[in-house]
Amino acid sequence: MKLIRNLPNLLTLFNLFLGCMAIAFYFNDPMVVFSTVNKASFETQTGNIYLGNIDWACYCIFLAAIIDFFDGFVARMLKVESALGKQLDSLADMVTFGLVPGLIMYQLLAFSYYANSNSFDYYILYFSGGFLITLCAAWRLAKFNLDAQSAEFKGLPTPSAALIVASLPLIILRDEMSIAQWLENPYIVLGIILLLSYLMVSNTPMMSLKIKSFKFEDNQWLFGLCLLSIIVILLGAMVLHIIFLVIPIIIILYIVLSIIKNISTHGI
Fold first, then answer.
1. DSSP label at 236?
2. pLDDT digit string (tens) for 49-105?
3. Closest CA to 46 of 139, 112, 116
4. Highest CATH level, class, for 2-208
5. What phi and psi values does residue 151 have, to the nearest 5 degrees?
6. Counting beta carbons within 10 angstroms of the beta carbon of residue 42, is it exposed (0 to 12), middle (13 to 18) or buried (19 or more)?
7. pTM
8. What pLDDT sits at residue 118?
9. Can you spell out the DSSP letters for 43-112?
10. Which long-range CB contacts under 8 A does 245-249 form with residues at least 24 apart?
11. How many other CB atoms are found less than 10 A from the CB of residue 129?
12. Cα 237 to chain center, whole Å?
């Protein structure tokens, strides 16, 4: 019985474990830049750029996002929600959906510079902008803990932002819709970082993804999001032959539906 009551906390710890494994994958085989040196001019010419095991770090985030949804769902179903679980959830999210996405954006920003310039032209401080994701995730999680009674989220949830970040390296590796060339532009990568960071710390109301009942009237917007997501997934897989690009598309739909819901409910 005690094990069942602690099942949501065990799921949260598994979320944290996946974040730790994502970091392990990130550092296990770091980005390598193969370069050749012109001995006459002492210039380094960048050759092939390898992203290492970053894909496995991204898969860990995907699985952790699923676990993060179910730990709260299980806690509500078992009626064992607690202050400990709330704090534990935020601490796990800070690692998995805060630190790991910051590391990924750091590496993608470095990749964008390396893809266009001499890899030794820039200090690591140029790539530290990726950690703005981490800082804003910490701010957003702290705000959420203080405003947990609200029926809606304020700002983009950290797991949603993390899913977008985790999809980017996989989009590059598969070069879906030829978007990889756009993500080789450091200004575009910086733009993504700034946009996600702003959305996380903003006060923009976002619809809650918590399922508290199965009544249609209580979840009509959530059911609408699920239906649109299924359509996007089917069109992406069967028509456009994309897999990971559907993730940012679905989250954009979530943001748009949240704004429409807010306007229709509050008239603003």
1. I
2. 556 688 999 999 999 999 998 887 788 787 777 888 888 999 999 999 999 999 999
3. 116
4. mainly alpha
5. -75, -20
6. exposed
7. 0.86
8. 60
9. EEEEEEEE-TTHHHHHHHHHHHHHHHHHHHHHHHHHT---HHHHHHHHHHHHIIIIIHHHHHHHHHHHHH
10. 245/167, 245/171, 245/176, 245/177, 245/179, 247/163, 247/164, 247/166, 247/167, 248/164, 248/167
11. 18
12. 21
The pLDDT-based confidence of 119 (bands split at 50, 70, 90) is: low
**51-76: b (≥16 Cβ within 10 Å) or e:** bbbbbebbbbbbebbebbbbbbbbbe
Q: What is the pLDDT of residue 39?
A: 40
Instruction: Say how far apart CA 163 and CA 96 lie, in whole Å.
Output: 11
Domain spans of the chain, in order of start: 2-208
- Phi and psi (nearest 5°) for 48? -85, 140
Partners of 37 in the beta sheet?
A: 44
Residue type, 240: L
Q: Tokens 């070069």: give the residue.
A: 175
CA pair distance 87, 59, nearest whole angstrom: 25
Q: Which residue has the tokens 């949260």?
A: 12
Which amino acid would we find at residue 107? Q
pLDDT digits (tens, 9 = 90+) for 19-35: 999 999 988 754 444 44
- 197: Cα separation from own chain's centroid: 11
Instruction: Name the maximum alpha-carbon separation found in the chain.
Output: 74
